[in-house]
DNA sequence: TCCGAAGTAGACAGATCGGTCTACCTTAAA
DNA sequence: TTTAAGGTAGACCGATCTGTCTACTTCGGA
């Protein structure tokens, strides 16, 4: 996984003085800024003016890349999907790439200072009436389940079990989001323990 | 549970011609309208003007009861909490008041035409930076867990298990919200099955 | 009988929203 | 050398946002 993606996903804001002097192209800056603000403060409560100001571009440049805020929202979800899945797969690898790896991965996520839950679940709550949004959530969760399938032994119904495990993760994520990350991980372990006693 | 609460929680819109002629007081009308719109379309995307118009009150009346939109949002969450918990307890009773009752209760919820996920999880995604909101979510989920505790046998760690079951419910709720209610219930059953094999 | 609470109708204000527009500059490839 | 893509700065638009205001009405209880 390239450094930039890992940075966006997990790092705390770095010292500007130490930052790479060559700033990325406008589109990338807009997307990164939108990602930070949309994820942290919500989509509807973040105006395009603020993104434009913080990305250091002009309105013309912004609207050249994203004809409407709606386009930016969808691009943000696609961007988030890419960096989250990359991070998730990498983190699972680092912890052994099996069912038991999920716990430390969640730990790493929940206790990251920028954690604010699952961007897709949040977007669903905020604009769950927009079909393009719902579709993106579906895609994201489908791919997440596929990654989880890869952690399961092949002598069981992996698709079913992966779906259940993914639901346990989502339950844990929202619980961590309202301020109970420890309890969330504990509850997740209980649910997984149950899963494991169903797995032959 | 009084009829009005059950109506708000579960019924499809009734025929206006058959409705009770004596309309409820202004505050109640505002609260019901806000509940419908906030839940269905999101909090930030619903302007007070629309609530005022659909509740059939004037701005003065509105702002006399709720000095700011923020006050209305918090009142909405308290209102939602009351009607949801009432419905949840009642529904569990109707299906036997044990762990196995949760499945048909979720079924009833997910397939209701007005279902749009958990209002608290949605609010958290939308305005999870506001401490009063986070606090309400915490309160709501704590009470939900307490109700679930009542379904568990007393020869186990009910608090822990109830927390895990509640997380499985939340995972199922968000999955149902993005359009997979059947898979959500199936996954929930798998998770609960695991729980039950941990329960002595 | 008087008074205050709760209601009506609707104009208005200031801020912010998403989005458009003109005018000019830089750079790299055809 | 020309040209097109991508960039800058900032004025401007109409719509919508939350919230305030004046002026009048209705009604139940002290």
UniProtKB/TrEMBL annotation, chains A, B:
Gene3D superfamilies: Tetracycline Repressor, domain 2 (1.10.357.10). SUPFAM superfamilies: Homeodomain-like, Tetracyclin repressor-like, C-terminal domain. Coiled coil: none annotated. The keyword Iron does not apply. It holds the Pfam family TetR_N. Keywords: DNA-binding, Transcription, Transcription regulation. The keyword Lipoprotein does not apply. Residues 47-66 bind DNA. PROSITE patterns: HTH_TETR_2. InterPro entries: Homeodomain-like_sf (IPR009057), HTH_TetR (IPR001647), Tet_transcr_reg_TetR-rel_C_sf (IPR036271). Residues 24-84 form the HTH tetR-type domain. This is TetR/AcrR family transcriptional regulator. It comes from Acidithiobacillus sulfurivorans.
